[in-house]
Design brief:
417 residues; single chain; alpha+beta; 15 strands
């Protein structure tokens, strides 16, 4: 391995590394790992580092914390660096894997995934974006997805005694909550991540690959049904039709009162209570309802995968680190520490004691991700789905608008030649 520690290296700030050489032992190889800021706590990283180096006597970890801002360009540069000084393991957003795998810049970890890491049990929303054909490049680490955050006191006042299990129950309950000056739900008109789940529930998709090229698919009957449900639900509140959930930030709207529900990651509840301490103890969580009570709704699964650059000088050492981080022991420890969903549904019991995370884990089992193509970033840059949603909510013909938006998606997904 290229980086060898000749002097003491100590933990400073968010840089995690063991201190000193072991007396009487040969020089260890150093594995450089890039992790994103706030993905794991410093205490977790110290515990992991100590355990890993204890069980891998020939390896030493150099964990370097990265900022999300500017990370795409930084990773791309590292993947193309032939100097041998780049990272050996990188944490990336699950939907970013196709962007980095393009051009053969990531190591193919299919064998390790099948033989050692339980590939068949991974959450689909993390695993699928990490694939290209039959090859697995991104290894699922942790997940986070949307649930419904609700006001228990407003539910009780409206006579809603338990969270809804189906979409139709959700509409009926939200209608009851949408009275007396309260909003049954605050749902912005352009929350396209939430819309995606409704489309997937109906059997549709945002785009489909046909004959080696991607085409927008918002005009399918299934996708149109998903949009119609979104329109009906959004009407039971006063969310802006021409903005997304961050404009204004929905945590602030919810904290101001008079809102019974929002669709968000559970962690947003902390911000809500900080802004309105009177809501402490009044918030509950339930999975996004599905078409039937037997299955919760599909959700967009965010989170992170781990990748190994093709230009690493020691793929064996790099995969040892990946295997330890994504294995049951440390993956469940991370989930408990950071309130994440573990990378396998079979590990969900590890977070069952936390109401919000437990609701998230139920939804994650049916999670999905955006189309697995490096060009999807171009779609999101000037997202035609948002304009489509606004036009339909305002009363435009859904079929016409879906056709228009799908054509723009197809154009953006055409690879540069």
């Amino acid at each position: 391995m290229r980086r060898r520690l000749l002097t003491l290296v100590c933990v400073t700030g968010s840089l995690v590394s063991a201190c000193g050489m072991l007396p009487g032992h040969h020089e260890r190889k150093t594995v450089t790992v890039w992790l994103m800021k706030d993905s794991a706590s410093p205490a977790f990283l110290r515990r992991f580092t100590a355990d890993f180096e204890r069980t891998h006597k020939d390896l030493r970890l150099d964990i370097r914390i990265q900022e999300w801002t500017g990370i795409v360009d930084k990773v791309r540069k590292a993947l193309g660096d032939g100097s041998g000084d780049g990272p050996d393991v990188i944490e990336v957003g699950n939907t970013q894997v196709p962007l980095y795998a393009d051009g053969g810049r990531l190591a193919d970890l299919t064998l390790e995934s099948m033989r050692d890491w339980g590939k068949d049990e991974w959450l689909p929303g993390l695993a699928q974006p990490g694939q290209d054909g039959n090859a697995q490049y991104g290894i699922p680490w942790y997940a986070a997805n949307r649930v419904v955050i609700y006001r228990k006191d407003l539910f009780e006042a409206a006579g809603v005694t338990r969270p809804p299990k189906t979409r139709e129950e959700w509409l009926a309950d939200t209608g009851k909550l949408d009275s007396g000056g309260n909003q049954g739900i605050y749902l912005a008109g352009q929350d396209w991540y939430t819309l995606s789940g409704f489309i997937w529930d109906e059997g549709g998709d945002l785009a489909l690959r046909k004959d080696y090229k991607w085409e927008g698919a918002l005009g399918s009957p299934a996708a149109l049904r998903g949009m119609d449900f979104y329109r009906r639900l959004q009407a039971l509140g006063r969310g802006p039709v021409d903005a997304d959930e961050d404009h204004p930030p929905q945590a602030g709207v919810f904290a101001a009162g008079k809102v019974a529900q929002i669709v968000a990651v559970p962690g947003l509840a902390q911000s809500i209570v900080q802004q309105n301490p009177a809501l402490k103890g009044k918030l509950g969580f339930f999975p996004v309802p599905g078409r039937t009570a037997a299955r919760p709704g599909a959700v967009f699964t965010g989170g992170s995968d781990l990748v190994v650059p093709e230009n690493t000088e020691d793929q064996f050492a790099a995969t040892a680190v990946v295997g330890a981080l994504v294995g049951a022991k440390w993956d469940t420890e991370l989930a408990r520490t950071m309130n994440y969903v573990p990378n396998k549904s079979s590990l969900a019991s590890a977070v069952a004691g936390e109401e919000g995370v437990a609701a998230m884990a139920v939804g994650a089992a049916h999670g999905r991700a955006t189309p697995s193509t490096p060009q999807w970033a171009d779609v999101e840059a000037d997202n035609p789905i948002k304009e489509y949603m606004t036009r339909v909510i305002e009363g435009a013909d859904p079929v016409v608008e879906a056709r228009r938006a799908s054509a723009k998606i197809t154009q953006e997904l055409a690879p540069d030649v």
